[in-house]
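This part of the workshop introduces the protein records we will be handling. A record pairs a protein's sequence with a compact description of its fold. Comparing a sequence with its tokens is the quickest way to learn the format. To make this concrete, we reproduce a full record directly below:
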Amino acid sequence: MPPTDRFVSETRFYVRYAETDAMRIVHHASYIVYFEEGRSDYMRQRGQNYAQFEHEGLFLAVVEVNARYIKPVVYGQQLLIRAWIEEMGSRGLTWGYDISDAQTGVQHVTGQTKHICITADGRVARLPDHWRAAVHAPKTE
């Protein structure tokens, strides 16, 4: 379950046919893309934009992915992705995710991704202060 002590973004969308296999079940690799959409929308909701982050010459390289598949998702199902920051260091961060059915609330997948901030030439860099400030801004209702 998502934490209650910090900001958690919520993103809704319908599963597209291209994300499924021959049984109309979402392919396991598609959830990693869903995680990406969750964290991108999280930062937009916090007033930041990953495209701007890259324009500044920085990137968040994925160094670890963990997904726990609880119940299959099918074509046409509306999902709710909740995303939050579990940990943040000076050069990296860990995101948490919860993917559930948007209507019933049934949980389908949970996961985490770890990222390290790098420059265009691959050197480890500090996360920008404005990103750290956006993440640590107070939770609003």
In short: The CA atoms of residues 1 and 98 lie 7 Å apart. The longest helix spans residues 30-45.
